[in-house]
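Appendix B. Worked example

We walk through a single record from start to finish. Start with the input: the chain for Cytochrome P450, Acanthoscelides obtectus, length 467.
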Amino acid sequence: MWLILVVTVAVLFVTMLLYEWFRCTMLKNRLKWVKDIPGIPILGNALEFGDTDETFANFQGFFDKHGKLLLLEVAMKPRIISCDYDFFEFMLGGQKVLNKSTVYTYLMNWLGTGLLTSDGPKWKKRRRLLTPAFHFSILEQFVDTFETQGKVLIRKLESLVDKDIDIYKYITLYALDVICETAMGITVNAQEDSESDYVRYVKEVCRIVAIRPHTIFKSSQLLYPLSKDFFREQQAVRHLHSVTYSVIDSRMKKLEQELAMSEAKRQENEATGIKRKMAFLDILLRSTIDGQPLSREDIREEVDTFMFEGHDTTASAISFCVFQVATHPDVQEKILEEQISIFGDDFNRNATLNDLQEMRYLECVVKETLRLFPSVPFIGRRTNEDTMYKGNLIPKDVNITLCIYHMMRDPEQYPNPNEFDPSRFEYNDGKKPYSFVPFSAGPRNCIGEFPLINKIFTYTQSDEEVL
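Next comes the structure step. The output line below is what the pipeline stores for this chain.
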């Protein structure tokens, strides 16, 4: 009996391997116009994906040696990788290749099919619905949140002056505090209680999602459930979903109470300054009540997506920005001069949205930081139909990795690309439209670009004493 079972499993496994090998071979035959990087049988180029530093260096080595448009294979799954400007312009600027690559499926256990992971009609519908949530009038009310949480962070860092610290650890907690208040309208006090369950589980899911694409065993949907990380992820996601649903239900009750409130009472509250901020969740709930087709699960997907995209990317960007400013005293001096020109001697007052818009040099510093260290260094696309590029065929269902990090360090786009030089962005100087894409570009660009920049501004403009 056991022998029959073992033989059956072995036959199924070999059949699966043969199917994947045949499919891989057929795809590669149709992509012969792309330079193929040889790998080893079955694994392909998987061993080239070590830790993050190795992946960046290996990709740069491939591009330097073989060109800017290449074909790799990982576990018999071909993927195009590119840092070529023309290819970026084709992929990001058009309407033909809008679907996300299969790598994004690793996020679906937590995020479902929200704005980040959805494709086709669902994505278009969500994008249209969510765009108004990022209007200036909505975002302006949270500038004081950025400021308040930034001051908590500064207070924490002031006690660590003259010590070597991992700045990212502290800024991640700051970003979590900000995103929880702006997305869900709740206070988690991550900076005061870094060991809270919510903070811990967010970190755990982010860790697992980051390593899965580069681990052969865990990248397989068939084998991943056999790993310890699968059960850790399930536990973390259950907790995160539970918190989000709890907040949704609570905010829904408050919203119903507000809608039941008389117009006279609302006017009285506004006259006395009692006006609640509209968190991202509130906007979603109002859309549901106003007849928009958003279910409780739909709302949870978008809130969790906003949480994921809004805290980790922000923390990374601010950390690199602070490091660059700290190691370039001349840049510090220029930032300080700009702050004095805006605030005068009154550095204790909170920044306004208008103040942030006046910080032109700081904007150059942030952009140069994002050019060197984009928070999302790679983005993935997948062809949903046969697509022609410069007379060459890209077949349906090919995964494509656009290497933003490497393209924005291309000497053809930026002279002395590894040098930190904020003056690059003081003038446009005829830069190509897709040469600066830390937030992607085109129809699927990052919807949260403006609030992320504002969070960086609001923190950096108040960090001079710490630096």
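Two observations about the output. The beta strands are 35-36, 69-74, 77-82, 378-382, 387-389, 392-394, 399-403. The chain has a mean pLDDT of 84.
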